[in-house]
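**User:** My hope is that you can spare some time for a protein that puzzles me. As I understand it, each token names a local backbone shape. I would be glad if you read both lines and explained how they fit together. The protein I mean follows directly.
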Amino acid sequence: METLHREKILQPVAPPQSVELLPGALRPHREWTATYLSVWVQAYNTHLVKREDLPKTFQDLLEPKWKGRLGMEAAVPEWYASIVMDMGEERGIRFFRELVARNGISMRSGHTLLNNLVIAGDVALALTLYQFMPEAAKRNGAPIDWFVLSTEAQQLLLSLDYIPTTGKLPSHLAERRMTLVDPALAMDRRDKWLKSFEDVLIRRASQ
């Protein structure tokens, strides 16, 4: 949709429901509106990891107990960029390099595959899953649960998908502080962050 805006195909609108939307759902140019959100969370195998042992911040992932136990989707440069920028670019990149060097990360292609690997116990803790996947599996009795890491404060990273953006619908996620991925920035800086993601994580994790 942001591409259509750049091509000047869309026109601004002023829907009466816009006052009920979550902040950021209506783009500043008012040419399109996000109707639902997808939340990136962390998920773990409940047979392998006790809830009281979960990391509370990203820095906790540097502890030796996570060596060989971490997994990540191999195509999430937007998630990576959001974490890095929240930490501060230099510090964030240094953190991910250190994480790979110390504990390694198993890079997997496909959120569904990664979710299934957590359930099977092949990955103890996945860093990047859409919340609805482990939640659905958990309701069906699978040994999986999800939580949210933080950098300096509790935070969720969002991109367009399943959680309605209207503030009228109740959600247990609405009580948390949420940071939306800016689609314009994601477009403009994708090449930069994709290269950094591949250099810092993909190539190093496969060595």
In short: Confidence is low (pLDDT under 50) at residues 152-162. The longest strand covers residues 36-45. Strands lie at 36-45, 70-73, 106-108, 125-130, 144-147, 156-160, 163-164, 178-180. The chain has seven helices and eight strands.
